[in-house]
Amino acid sequence: MASNEQQVTKPPYAMIIILFIGAFVSILNETLLNVALPSIMEEFDVSAAAVQWLSTGYMLVNGILIPASAFFIQRFTNKRLFITAMALFTAGTVLASFSPTFGVLLAARMIQASGSAIMMPLLMNVMLFSFPVERRGAAMGMFGLVMITAPAIGPTLSGWIIEHYSWRMLFDIVIPLAALILIFAVIKFKNITPNRDIKLDVWSIILSSIAFGGLLYGFSLAGERGWDSPHVYIPIAAGVIGLIIFITRQLRMEDPLLEFRIYRYPMFALSSAISIVLSMAMFSAMLLMPIYIQTLRGISPMDSGLLMLPGAIVMGIMSPITGKLFDKFGARILGVIGLSITIYTTYLFSNLTLDTSYSYLVMVYTLRMFGMSMVMMPVMTNGLNQLPANMNPHGTAMNNTLQQVSGAIGAAFLVTIMQNRTESEAERLAEEAMSSLPASAQPDPAQLADLQTHIMNQSMLEGINFSFTISVYIALVALVLTFFMKRVKPAEESKQETASQHALES
């Protein structure tokens, strides 16, 4: 195995820049297609349920392959792995652009996802290996720029493209960029991360696919189909059973696919708990704001995307700054300040009205993103800093997997709360309206239609506000946990810990 001393040599900046751009393009592509789904439905004459598989299928492939990324990173050189991932992503993008049928387009998205799933764990692992503990904050801050900004820019960019061009242009603009990244990777990439000749456990792959695939699929459909649908509870039940068997198997293996023993490190365990809770809370604005803006307020998808753009820009600016502040002050003070801002702005969103101004929404959303920019990367980096170098691939794989699963759970949970509150509020308002009418009066059809529209809007608004209120309490849990964070051992002690770990393994 390569020595840890490589971590304190000059980082391979050219290689990291290529990784950054590749990861940015792959994450951007994940969110680009959402606005284009109605156009694709029309062109291929497919149902809403069918077209949704372009997003759901992409997410499922990610959920299945990300847990396996720890094996790939340890088994194969980082150059070979990145070139393979980028080649798959590029091939999928080209196929999607020219796809003659919906089936071909769906297959192309799956191929894209198989490449992009490896990008983020590989980038994080290279970053952790390239920088010593005391400089990781600034480095991971730049990583946060990619992880946070790309999905926020996606809806705005795709909204503008769809208004002016065909949905195929979403893939056409990515092809030359992906091809250039691939060429530069062949020329500039070098191998810096250690590799081991480990064998792939087929049963672990199967169990991982059932566990994470089932959970992601079930929870992603819960908001649309309802919890009593067999399409929801059967995959979730299979996912839970698969996860229990998968974890049990991993704990008994000498070279597990995903190392769950990393939770013996308390700061990593705490950072995982905070990240899970935060991912669930974060989905409140990402999910509920478009419903409020487009459905209730009638604001166009383009203007909806523009509303979120200043927040994305602020997060992009703040990510490197937050990283440097993390190196200086640690994660706890940043987490407390950032979560306090996030909680306050989420509370403001729980008091929306049908007349709330567009400028107010932009201001509060941007302030919320400012708060969140101070939390996510510092918390994650603080946890990863405690892991020995040989555990980094498992730490990055675990973090990325948990973000996927907790995001799906959070989305399903909040949508369910919104729908239930909307239905109960609609019943209450309808009863009040009917009781206020004179028994002998014959309601005017036009007035009745207006009344129904008013009840629908008010009840949905109440559902959205109540979901934001629940998000406040979820974020409060993350705030309480953040007070228990502390700086981990310095780089010198971490090396000793890694040496001890190697001695135990041998």
TrEMBL record:
GO terms for cellular component: plasma membrane. GO terms for molecular function: transmembrane transporter activity. Keywords: Cell membrane, Membrane, Transmembrane, Transmembrane helix, Transport. It is found in: Cell membrane. The chain crosses the membrane at residues 12-33, 53-73, 80-98, 110-131, 143-162, 168-188, 200-219, 231-248, 268-293, 305-326, 333-352, 358-380, 466-485. Its main location: membrane. SUPFAM superfamilies: MFS general substrate transporter. It comes from the Bacteria. InterPro entries: EmrB-like (IPR004638), MFS (IPR011701), MFS_dom (IPR020846), MFS_trans_sf (IPR036259). Coiled coil: none annotated. Residues 15-490 form the Major facilitator superfamily (MFS) profile domain. The keyword Transmembrane applies. It is a multi-pass membrane protein. Belongs to the major facilitator superfamily. EmrB family. NCBIfam families: efflux_EmrB. This is Multidrug resistance protein. It comes from Bacillus thermotolerans (Quasibacillus thermotolerans). The lineage of its organism: Bacteria, Bacillati, Bacillota, Bacilli, Bacillales.
